[in-house]
Fold this sequence. Notes:
The protein has 327 residues and is α/β, with parallel strands linked by helices. It has 2 domains: 2-130 and 292-322, Medium-chain alcohol dehydrogenases, catalytic domain (Quinone Oxidoreductase, Chain A, domain 1), CATH 3.90.180.10; 133-267, Rossmann fold (3-Layer(aba) Sandwich). Helices cover 27% and strands 26% of the residues. The chain contains 10 helices and 15 strands. The strands form 3 sheets. Strands 3, 4, 5, 6, 7, 14 and 15 form a 7-stranded mixed β-sheet that branches. It starts with a strand and ends in a 5-residue tail after the last strand.
Amino acid sequence: MKAIVATKYGSPEVLQLKEIAKPTPKANEVLVRIVASSVTAADTMMRRGTPFYGRLFIGLLKPNHSIPGTGFAGVVEAVGKDVTHFAEGDAVFGESVLGSGTNAEYVCVAENGIIISKPDNISFAEAASICDGPLTSLNFLKNLAAVQPGQKVLINGASGSLGTAAVQLAKYFEAEVTGVCSTNNVELVKSLGADHVIDYTKEDFTKSKVQYDVIYDTIGKSSYSKAKSVLTANGAYISPVLSVCLLFQMMWTSIAGKKKARFSATGLLPVPALRDFLFELRAMLSAGYLKSIVDRQYPLEQIAKAHAYVDNGHKRGNVVLSMNESI
């Protein structure tokens, strides 16, 4: 099969298209013919091996797993002898974390892993990135922040993968939503349901007179110390981008004050918890409460271009790789 292989950390050019052996499913696994796979900001960070402490999980001097990519959508081609919940021909989507990469034509996934059937009303391209932005944002807004109806929620980076999902999810939870993005993305964020949109090129939300119950900094471009003044008395600053500064702020606010700084490594949550999130997201997708925004699609052999585009920091929603099929 064709697969992308990276044997060292570095620029997008370390990603090489190679022909390797097609995997064989174990007794409890399904073999998925991948139709589309995701390219995320987290993927590009893992390609670079940054931040350095992340190498404790992915490989100190080189990647432990040479095939990159985590999110996927595709069709079950074969099942192991003990598999009971999937059959050949099933359309599925999910995620392979810290294991077999998904920037390839095939991947094997455990039946009880992060994999479920794909809703009929979304494409493979739209499904491929659900385990990035929507899954992470659901964890942050529902678990970390426990967003309630009527609360004021601000989404920083509202036009990215996590941000476009967060705007929709916060509205689903009946919050009053403010999105922060660039001028070019104001209309997109409005179309997703944001009640208010702040153009960061013209206004600094941390100097606003409005106070927010939750500030979800999806891109880690602000900080708890900057945002503290616009948090309500019991407000929370939450971000999936862990820094040394955020780590100390989390520790400090856990023992002092009512305003909190919080972080969660969503991908490291127990698999059953991630599956529950995925089932919840599928219900929203099927009912039309949530839609996946696909910015660009690249063929597998152009993965370096896909990574370079994500690296520039201006993608709208998601970027996916296509395995030369109509998706």
